[in-house]
Fold this protein.
Amino acid sequence: MIIHLKASVNASQAKDLAQSHAAILFKQEDQHILVTSSKVKELPQLLTDFTDAFFPMESDIQLASRNYQKTLREIQIGNQVIGGNSNHTMMITGPCSIESWEQIKASAELLREYNLKTLRAGCFKPRTSPYTFQGLGAKGLEMLVKIREEYGYNIITEVKDSTHVDLVIEHADIIQIGAKAMYDQSILRKCGQTNKPILLKRGFGSTLQEFVQAAEFILSQGNRNVMLCERGIRTFETKTRFTYDLCGVAFLKEHTNLPIVLDPSHALGHRYGIADLTRASVAMGVEGLLIESHPHPEKAQSDPAQQLNFDEFRAMFKTLRPVASAIGRTII
Ligand code: PEP
Ligand code: MN
């Protein structure tokens, strides 16, 4: 149950009420909000005098639920807005990993051709093998900050573990929590304590319920700016890297109030179908797309098979705006 406390309840009272009702407490603007387990269906008697409004919920998808907030959340990213009534679909592109200054500079120039503003590149890479390239780490992040200074872009990069979560929160404009980190509660909680936008990727073995509950860990710390990213789940199928769960996306659109970003690159794992899948993703009317691109994919240190070269990106991109406009959206 979500309980909005009265404005007259002060911080220490709110803390006591939270403790005595096993609730999580956070503050939104001037309002103290308690969230108990969704098993609580009736307002506890002791809370009646302190409560402004309360919302019994069906499951522990609570703050993210459309039954709580009926409208899609609006998220401000630099001077761009997604969600709400914006009808914007944000194209996030860039390499899987930042590898060199020349490489990231070339990627920054590609964005400029289309007036795009959101550049991605991983610095701390959650690789499956310890013997492969692990990312440039803090050095990579420094380069991304330089690119932002030069181009004014919003930079998105991922947090792999809690050793660098503060560093990434400090420097990135959007913090990506990768599929493998989706269950890391120290990362989720830390990301809940900032107001920066968070892109939470779905763990490849996670149900939709588990995925959205991971988002609840962030939301219930007070950060409202959470986006969900579908990037493919593991099924019995081995011909593609993962299975792109667009039915799941339909569920998330219907039942949650969180903006959605679609990542066909990691789902398919091969560049041949990315243009088709990206058009299909645009047609779903989502708030964002995450497409890996690289000046020389064949030389990429991570995910070489799925990254588009710039000519492939250009050929694809020119087909996206007409698809978006057919459903009343603009790509930013
Ligand atoms: C990535 O975006 O490069 C990445 C590692 O994604 P995921 O966490 O979805 O595997
Ligand atoms: Mn990648």
